[in-house]
Here is the input.
Amino acid sequence: MRYLGTNSVSPKNKYADEAFEGKIRQPVHCDMIHDHLDFPFAMTVNIPFVDTSVDNGATEFWLGTHFQGNNGIKDPALDGPWIAGEYLEKRRLERPPIRPPISKGSLLIRDMRLWHAGIANETSNPRIMLSMVRPLFSSNEASFRQLVRQFNADHLPRNKQGNG
Ligand SMILES: O=C(O)CCC(=O)C(=O)O
Here is the structure.
């Protein structure tokens, strides 16, 4: 479990409080700052503890972006998982983001690579949401090690491929 009580990437980063009234929106990001694998490898589960709506900052989702994840498109000027503006603007023209209302207690399960952002809460009631990231494979599973070997073979120079 990453946090309970606010809903942001990390309590340490400056966008941690967008769940409360009057805060700024998060930059668009995928979960986790490391480069992503090219296949589904982790899921995020969100459970809002209050009904979410556009007014209280319902999360913005960029559908279809999980196929790309964050590979090579993080903003190098910012210290974080944030997607660079040029990629956001390109994607916005292809398929703009959505902000669906989500009922309290719903389970929202998404590929961890999906671009998303928490939005400023315009109400005086905190928008509380539980957020958990779970791997889809155990790192001991042969099938997972095979996928990582294949990924490395496709993406890394031969001297950096290791044994997977
Ligand atoms: O505050 C939000 O709605 C988004 C939180 C978030 O970035 C996450 O759960 O990974």
Remarks:
- Residues 74 and 83 are 4 Å apart (CA to CA).
